[in-house]
């Protein structure tokens, strides 16, 4: 892979403020999101550093480049103290990834206090570019608005207009519910009912909501759960045979790992939105092959997003000629670019949302799966503007 | 302790250690150790001195943390006041919880407190309008009458007097006439009752005091880290603090400090050494239960005596 | 339940004075899951005397003890202690009326020293107990009296030993010391000499005699030697009821008592 | 909670189905708390690791399927047996050293064991769910009058009820329960009465663990098979056990089903109630009957 | 029947028994007397295998059993009434009685036990914890009888018993002896001991200091009482 972005002042030798560049990855390495980003996201960032050096010369930064990492176990307190420690003690210049919205919001706050960069990749909350936006935080890859604008709209238009939404009752789920509600009603659909499921769900049981779905008889059951919860919902959706009652399943956020957990037949036909699929085209596949060689798995969009974000961050330093955070922010703001992950990319200066095209994909039945991790078929592209929250709706007051 | 001088030396020594600690280890970790130790002492106050193993002390640590964090953020209270409010909230919560829990003892007490803490966990999660649910209470300022103590290193020193006050409180309670009655109740409750002590009242007071101490630690922890989260209320938090107490040795307040330091230090180090830090923690706990039931502090403290005895024999 | 008047039937001439009772029970009954361990007992203990409670095993002596001291709640009936209705009081409240007891099975604080036991008992008469803010130095004023008490029961040398390390006989002596520390007006002792060697039995007899001065004492004993030596009055129970009541010599020859409890000869 | 306009018309069928859902959840509570009660009642050990063994049961079924192609029905026997073997090792190597000590040590040891097992499985298998299919024989739905309900779930209810009754009979009506209770209460003395304590105790522990494993196998086709699947249920089970009365076999079963149904009915009003209701119920029981519905305070 | 030689026992550093030796022949009833702490209980615990810090020979019916596990010794015919009664609090009276296996032909059937000890029959469904002190003592003795042991080891069985029961116990032991019972009895109550036993071993500070027969006890009663007391 590599950046194909053009423009930007390509200054001479780069001056690092403290003689070295430290890229930090804070994410979940031991709990529910460990598979979809985790240690392999760290590998992705390391790959980006190596590739960047290969392209621009080993000594491009005139100093060492370190990649450091910490496990936040999805705990916002741990995330924030790790971030604090990284910025302060390890002189980290930037933090990447941070799945789990609460942890991401906590780190955004630290970044702002410490005046260092934070580029979010795996957290979905729109608050990062909304009320809690700040000068040093960027939101890459995807957010709940994108998912709703894709899946919510398409399913309402093509599958059914009446929805029953079930969502895990916490920040992420509520944000998803709100985004989907907006998207669906705007498209002319109706929401018959929407229920929050307890989070965490102690028993892994969702049968009450599915039974309720059976009696509400909506055309679409919108499941906003993620990870293990989602797997349970889908398992039980199939057990209660809701499909036979013509209640179609729509899923808010789907990762390949969720499909692996049940096999793709359990999901067959489900349409979902994703920023990226590893075999969407040659450029993506080239990266995916390289990644497979290194990690033995195909990259999720979180892995690819980490690579891409790290690359773009380093490129901004290269253009700025310094790693001074304010200078780097200036380089990033308003930047237009393309790479193997981001298509039609544009970093909005107003809220730091990195807008780009997304994909509409559909899970294939097991019989169509040709190689490992080849679960989905791309149905089409969603235009960047279409899946980006209008600036008027963000509520972000970006401090200058 | 034998004489007066060793005790004074110990107090002075620990004060010096407390003052220079942030120069030796990362100040956030240093404060964490002191606060978890205080938390562990509050649990030890019950386990070691009343014989009640609370497996739900996260409720008081976390409950107070939420109250303190919300007050500091929304009313912009200076942190000592916010912490005081946290303490009071924890004690208020401890009254009904304690009233119900002390009806059982031994393992039942552990399970009942555990369940109550989980109930609070879900309750706080559901009251997300106030508590922020999974997001927790974020962006808590560290205010000290107008001054904002932004740097963690500064906050360490700002909080130190309160922490030491907490230690002193625990020390005093265990070595008060009240503490003696607690020890008696631990050994033989019926007998204590026959001596005219209304034991339920004593147990309840001890429970509430312990909750207050845990609340102090929790409040300062939340303010120090700038927020309160659900994790502070989760049963694993209760488990961790019990682990610290048992590791250090029940009924020895110093043990709590040793236990807290070891667990936090290990956690800090392990996360970069091994993938399975929980498994290591679990293995340590198993080893302690099987091999060092008296706790590290007592085992260590007994070493010199044992060495002397061995020398004497040869 | 029989009407109030019939319950005042006076069994023993000694009990003619109704105002001097340390303990009075009226039709006290205790049922355990349908089994009546104590069955309508009217007991009157005259202030200042030593009473023995004897009876076959399972007669309900310990249960009655527990009813008097608040460790059990009667199914029906009333308990009056020093004229106060104590039926619904908790164990600690009854203790604070001036009642001290020992237990049939030794019951001490394993990890406290002998002296600490006595201090704890002395302290219980004050309001120091709940003072979690004051220093333990406040207890120092009890030490002289504490040592004195230990001396009285022959434990002066064992003041600093842990209760769990004491031999059986000394444990029982310590129990006695704690009971005495509370300066009780009513002293209840459940088998104080059981498991003791002859020497300790002798000492205990002397001690009970000594402390009995001015106090009401009720002791349960199977050792008739002890009963004969110390008790001024003997109450005999069988199957939850009182079957005899009077001075030792009188009770000893009561045929019902012989059949139910004493057996043919000495023992 | 937002409510759809069509709610009223569906209430009755919905409520009935919720009762069934409650029974399914109750079946799991009952099996888990039954195992806990057997172990506690006889060994005086509160097995914190019960949830971990439940998880191991599900994984055993999954691995049997994956590695040996062994399906659900044989797994129903084999997986609990495999878990029981682990239980035997745990009892022989660890728990055995704690008998006669304060039961809190057993609690702490099994807490440590939970961390060890759970984290060990995570390192080996990761946290993502593992697939396990519903047995084809039970893939369909049964219609019960006007409503239909998945056959597999009905099977879970019936099967666990049968197991509970059998266990109750074995413990209350045969020599087994008595011998093991005696062995735990006075381990050495019981040996001096000619009873091979070790074998009985190990057997009982393994049996209680096998019940957890069995619950795990039953859960595999319905719930996410992952290393943390047992972490939360075990806490709920504690509440159930307190409600039923610790160590009471009948209490565990009755409270298990009752709590399941009650929580599900609560969920009709508000899904969030499901979690809180159980603990609130526990508080009420403690207030009015501290020993639990079927417990006795004497055996504390 | 039972022969003990060179039996020493320790509690940590402290030696509780010093080369104790004695024998109990078939059909004999022997007592071990001595003041508190002499080592009587320790001796019995060594015999049944509950005290492990020991050395010495224990021979039961010609077989050396000191290496055996407690359960094996019990099945070989040792019946034990411990000094703390050893009642199972969580088992009912019935269960307490039927718990140990019946190991010999002289095992008492339940009916006989309940006929002999009517107190127990009344409480047969009550749990052990709820029995009075004396009832527990009786239950403990009854349990040993029910096992049908070849030799009974009784540790202070009269402790806490009402006089009438002490007499009953005496009659019962005498009856059983006529039926061929062999027993080793630990007693502080000399009267009781002389009434039922054939021979007495006097234990002091872990050593057997004297062997006495009933006649000798009668003659030296005062001296012995002093010895036991002081
Ligand atoms: N908690 C209880 N539950 C059921 N029955 C009980 C309980 N406590 C005592 N009992 C029964 O009540 C009766 C009286 O017991 P108690 O302990 O009062 O007898 P006691 O006269 O002290 O006998 P001993 O001389 O043997 O100590 C006994 O039959 C006993 O089994
Ligand atoms: N668990 C123990 N730990 C340490 N020493 C013990 C222990 N049990 C007994 N001893 C000591 O061993 C010696 C013998 O005790 P043992 O119990 O055998 O005496 P005994 O003759 O049965 O006395 P008693 O008449 O009081 O029952 C005593 O000195 C006692 O202090
Ligand atoms: Mg009694
Ligand atoms: Mg003895």
- State the major sheet of chain E: 6 strands, mixed
What series of H and E elements makes up the topology of chain E? EEEHEEHEHHHHEHEHEEHH
Q: Which ions and ligands are bound to the chains?
A: adenosine-5'-triphosphate, magnesium ion
Beta-strand residue fraction of chain E: 25-35%
Strand tally of chain E: 10
- Total of helices of chain A: 12
Total DSSP helices of chain E: 10
Query: Which CATH architecture of chain E is right?
Result: 3-Layer(aba) Sandwich
CATH fold call of chain E = Rossmann fold
**What's the CATH first level of chain E?**
Alpha Beta
Distance between the termini of chain E: 33 Å
Global Rg of chain E: 17 Å
β-strand amount of chain A? 15-25%
Shape of chain E: globular
**Uncertain runs of chain E with pLDDT below 50, 5 residues or more?**
none
Mean pLDDT of chain A: 89
Please tell me about this protein's structure.
The complex is a heteropentamer of chains A (400), B (314), C (267), D (300) and E (230). Chain A has 400 residues and is of the alpha/beta class. Chain A has twelve helices and 15 strands. Chain A has helices spanning 38-56, 76-88, 101-114, 144-158, 171-186, 207-216, 227-239, 256-262, 282-295, 301-320, 325-332, 391-394; strands at residues 20-27, 64-71, 94-97, 117-120, 137-139, 162-168, 190-197, 220-223, 248-251, 271-274, 336-337, 345-347, 354-355, 358-363, 376-382. Mean pLDDT of chain A is 89; it is low at 1-11. By secondary structure, chain B is mainly alpha-helical. Chain B is globular and about 55 Å long. Chain E is α/β, with parallel strands linked by helices and 230 residues long. Chain E has one domain: Rossmann fold (3-Layer(aba) Sandwich), CATH 3.40.50.300. Chain E contains ten helices and ten strands. Chain E has helices spanning 40-48, 70-75, 93-98, 110-116, 118-122, 133-147, 163-178, 190-196, 214-219, 221-229, and strands spanning 2-11, 14-24, 29-33, 54-60, 63-64, 78-81, 151-155, 182-187, 199-204, 207-213. In chain E, the strands form two sheets. Chain E has a six-stranded mixed sheet with strand order 6-7-8-3-9-10, sandwiched between helices. Chain E has a four-stranded antiparallel sheet with strand order 2-1-4-5, covered by helices on one side. In chain E, a hairpin with a 2-residue loop joins strand 4 (54-60) and strand 5. Chain E starts with a strand and ends with a helix. The mean pLDDT of chain E is 87. Bound molecules: adenosine-5'-triphosphate (2 copies) and magnesium ion (2 copies). One adenosine-5'-triphosphate (ATP) sits between chains C (32, 35, 37, 55, 57-63, 104) and E (123, 126, 130-135). One magnesium ion (MG) binds at residues 40-41, 83, 155 of chain E.
């Amino acid at each position: 892979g590599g950046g194909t972005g053009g423009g930007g002042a390509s200054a001479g030798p780069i001056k690092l403020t403290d003689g070295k560049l430290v890229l930090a990855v804070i994410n979940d390495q031991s709990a529910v999101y460990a598979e979809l980003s985790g240690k392999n996201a760290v590998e992705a960032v390391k790959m980006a550093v190596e590739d960047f050096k290969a392209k621009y010369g080993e000594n491009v930064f005139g100093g060492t480049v370190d990649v450091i990492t910490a496990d936040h176990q999805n705990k916002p307190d741990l995330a924030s103290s790790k971030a604090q420690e990284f910025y302060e003690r390890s002189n980290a210049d930037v933090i990447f990834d941070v799945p789990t919205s609460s942890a991401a919001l906590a780190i955004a706050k630290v970044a702002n206090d410490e005046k260092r960069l934070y580029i979010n990749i795996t957290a979905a909350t729109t608050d990062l570019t909304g009320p809690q936006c700040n000068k040093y935080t960027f939101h890459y890859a995807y957010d709940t608005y994108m998912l709703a604008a894709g899946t919510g709209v398409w399913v309402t238009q093509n599958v059914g207009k009446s929805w029953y939404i079930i969502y895990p009752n916490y920040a992420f789920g509520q944000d998803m519910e709100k985004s989907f509600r907006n998207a669906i009603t705007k498209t002319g659909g109706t929401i018959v009912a929407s229920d929050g499921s307890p989070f965490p769900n102690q028993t892994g049981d969702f049968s009450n909501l599915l039974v309720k779905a059976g009696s509400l008889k909506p055309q679409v059951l919108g499941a906003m759960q993620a990870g293990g919860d989602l797997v349970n919902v889908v398992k039980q959706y199939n057990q209660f045979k809701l499909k036979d009652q013509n209640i179609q399943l729509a899923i808010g956020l789907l990762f390949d790992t969720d499909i692996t957990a049940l096999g793709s037949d359990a999901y067959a036909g489900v349409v979902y939105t994703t920023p990226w699929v590893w075999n969407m085209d040659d450029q993506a596949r080239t990266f995916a092959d390289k990644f497979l060689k290194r990690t033995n798995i195909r990259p999720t969009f979180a892995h690819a997003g980490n690579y891409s974000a790290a690359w773009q961050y380093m490129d901004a330093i290269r253009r700025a000629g310094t790693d001074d955070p304010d200078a780097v922010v200036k380089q990033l703001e308003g930047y237009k670019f393309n790479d193997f992950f981001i298509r039609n990319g544009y970093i909005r200066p107003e809220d730091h949302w990195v807008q780009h095209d997304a994909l509409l994909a559909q899970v294939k039945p097991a019989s169509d799966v040709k190689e490992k991790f080849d679960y989905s078929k791309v149905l089409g592209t969603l235009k960047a503007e279409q899946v980006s929250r209008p600036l008027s709706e963000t509520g972000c007051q970006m401090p200058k | 302790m034998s004489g007066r001088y060793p005790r004074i030396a110990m107090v002075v020594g620990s004060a010096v250690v407390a003052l220079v600690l942030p120069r030796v280890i990362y100040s956030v970790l240093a404060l964490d150790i002191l606060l978890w130790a205080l938390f562990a002492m509050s649990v030890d106050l019950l386990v070691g001195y009343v014989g009640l193993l609370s497996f739900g002390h996260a409720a008081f640590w976390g409950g107070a943390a939420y109250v303190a964090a919300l007050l500091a953020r929304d009313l912009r209270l200076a942190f000592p006041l916010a912490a005081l409010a946290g303490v009071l909230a924890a004690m208020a919560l401890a009254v009904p919880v304690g009233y119900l829990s002390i009806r059982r003892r031994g393992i039942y007490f552990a399970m009942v407190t555990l369940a109550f803490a989980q109930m609070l966990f879900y309750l706080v999660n559901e009251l997300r309008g106030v508590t922020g649910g999974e997001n927790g209470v974020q962006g808590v300022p560290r205010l000290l009458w107008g001054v904002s103590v932004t740097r963690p290193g500064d906050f360490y020193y700002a909080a130190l007097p309160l922490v030491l006050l907490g230690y002193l409180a625990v020390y005093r309670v265990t070595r008060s006439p009240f503490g003696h009655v607690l020890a008696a109740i631990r050994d033989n409750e019926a007998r204590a009752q026959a001596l005219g002590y209304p034991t339920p009242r004593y147990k309840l007071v001890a429970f509430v005091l312990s909750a207050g101490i845990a609340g102090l630690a929790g409040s300062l922890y939340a303010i120090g880290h700038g927020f309160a989260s659900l994790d502070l209320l989760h049963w694993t938090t209760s488990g961790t603090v019990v682990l610290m107490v048992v590791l250090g040795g029940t009924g020895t307040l110093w043990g709590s400090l040793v236990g807290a330091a070891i667990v936090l230090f290990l956690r800090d180090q392990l996360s970069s050494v091994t993938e399975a830090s929980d498994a290591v923690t679990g293995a340590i706990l198993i080893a302690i239960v099987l091999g060092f039931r008296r706790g590290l502090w007592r085992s260590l403290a007994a070493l010199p005596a044992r060495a002397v005895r061995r020398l004497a024999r040869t | 339940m029989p009407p109030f008047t019939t319950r005042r039937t006076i069994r023993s001439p000694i009990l003619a004075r109704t105002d001097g009772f340390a303990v009075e029970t009226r039709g006290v009954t205790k049922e355990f899951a349908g089994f009546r361990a104590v069955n309508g007992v009217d007991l009157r203990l005259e202030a200042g005397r030593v009473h023995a409670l004897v009876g076959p095993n399972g007669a309900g002596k310990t249960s009655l003890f527990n009813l008097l001291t608040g460790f059990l709640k009667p199914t029906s009936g009333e308990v009056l202690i020093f004229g106060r209705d104590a039926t619904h009081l908790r164990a600690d409240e009854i203790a604070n009326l001036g009642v001290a007891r020992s237990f049939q099975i030794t019951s001490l604080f394993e990890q406290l020293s002998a002296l600490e036991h006595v201090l704890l008992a002395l302290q219980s008469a004050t309001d120091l107990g709940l003072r979690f803010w004051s220093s333990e130095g406040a207890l120092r004023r009890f030490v002289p009296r504490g040592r004195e008490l230990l001396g009285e029961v022959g434990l002066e040398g064992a003041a600093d030993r842990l209760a769990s390390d004491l031999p059986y006989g000394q444990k029982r002596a310590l129990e006695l010391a704690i009971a005495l520390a509370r300066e009780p007006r009513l002293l209840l002792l459940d088998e104080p000499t059981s498991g003791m060697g002859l020497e300790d039995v002798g000492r205990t007899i002397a001690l009970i005699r000594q402390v009995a001065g001015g106090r009401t004492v009720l002791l349960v004993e199977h050792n008739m030697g002890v009963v004969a030596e110390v008790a001024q009055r003997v109450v005999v129970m069988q199957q939850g009821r009182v079957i005899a009541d009077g001075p030792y010599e009188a009770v000893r020859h009561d045929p019902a008592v012989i059949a139910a409890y004493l057996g043919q000869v000495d023992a | 909670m937002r409510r759809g306009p069509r709610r009223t018309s569906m209430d009755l069928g919905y409520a009935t189905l919720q009762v069934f859902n409650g029974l399914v959840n109750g079946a799991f509570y009952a099996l888990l708390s039954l195992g806990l009660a057997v172990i506690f009642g006889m060994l005086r050990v509160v097995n914190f690791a019960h949830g971990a063994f439940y998880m191991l049961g599900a994984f055993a079924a999954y691995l049997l399927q994956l590695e040996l192609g062994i399906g659900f029905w044989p797994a129903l026997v084999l997986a609990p047996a495999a878990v029981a073997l682990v239980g035997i090792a745990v009892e022989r190597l660890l728990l055995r050293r704690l008998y006669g000590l304060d039961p809190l040590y057993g609690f702490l040891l099994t807490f440590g064991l939970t961390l060890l097992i759970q984290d060990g499985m995570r390192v080996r298998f990761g946290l993502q769910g593992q697939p396990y299919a519903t047995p084809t024989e039970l893939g369909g739905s049964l219609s019960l009058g006007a409503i239909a309900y998945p056959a597999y779930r009905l099977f879970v209810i019936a099967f666990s009820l049968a197991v509970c009754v059998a266990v109750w009979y074995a413990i209350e009506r045969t020599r087994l329960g008595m011998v093991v209770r005696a062995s735990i209460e006075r381990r050495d003395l019981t040996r001096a009465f000619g009873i091979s304590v070790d074998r009985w105790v190990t057997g009982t522990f393994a049996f209680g663990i096998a019940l957890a494993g069995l619950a795990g196998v039953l859960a595999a086709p319905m719930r996410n098979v992952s290393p943390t699947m047992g972490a939360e249920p075990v806490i709920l089970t504690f509440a159930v056990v307190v409600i039923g009365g610790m160590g009471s076999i009948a209490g565990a079963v009755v409270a298990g089903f009752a709590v399941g149904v009650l929580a599900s009915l609560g969920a009709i009003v508000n899904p969030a109630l499901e979690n809180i209701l159980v603990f609130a119920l526990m508080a009420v029981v403690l207030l009015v009957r501290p020993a639990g519905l079927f417990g006795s305070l004497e055996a504390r | 029947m039972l022969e003990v030689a060179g039996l020493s026992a320790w509690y940590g550093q402290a030696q509780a028994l010093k080369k104790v030796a004695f024998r109990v022949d078939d059909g004999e009833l022997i007592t071990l007397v001595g003041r508190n702490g002499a080592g009587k209980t320790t001796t019995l615990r060594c015999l049944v295998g509950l005290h492990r810090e020991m050395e010495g020979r224990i021979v039961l019916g010609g077989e050396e059993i000191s290496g055996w596990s407690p359960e094996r010794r019990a099945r070989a015919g040792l019946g034990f009434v411990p000094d703390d009664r050893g009642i199972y609090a969580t088992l009912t009276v019935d269960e307490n009685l039927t718990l140990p296996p019946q190991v010999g032909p002289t095992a008492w059937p339940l009916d006989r036990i309940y006929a002999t000890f009517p107190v127990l029959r009344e409480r047969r469904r009550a749990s052990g914890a709820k029995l009075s002190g004396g009832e527990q003592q009786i239950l403990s003795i009854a349990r040993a009888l029910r096992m049908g042991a070849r030799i009974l080891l009784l540790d202070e069985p009269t402790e806490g018993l009402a006089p009438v029961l002490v007499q009953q116990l005496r009659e019962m032991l005498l009856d059983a002896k006529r039926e061929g019972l062999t027993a080793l009895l630990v007693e502080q109550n000399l009267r009781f001991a002389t009434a039922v036993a054939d021979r007495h071993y006097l234990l002091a500070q872990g050593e057997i200091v004297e062997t006495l027969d009933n006649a000798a006890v009668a003659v030296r009663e005062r001296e012995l009482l002093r010895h036991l007391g002081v």
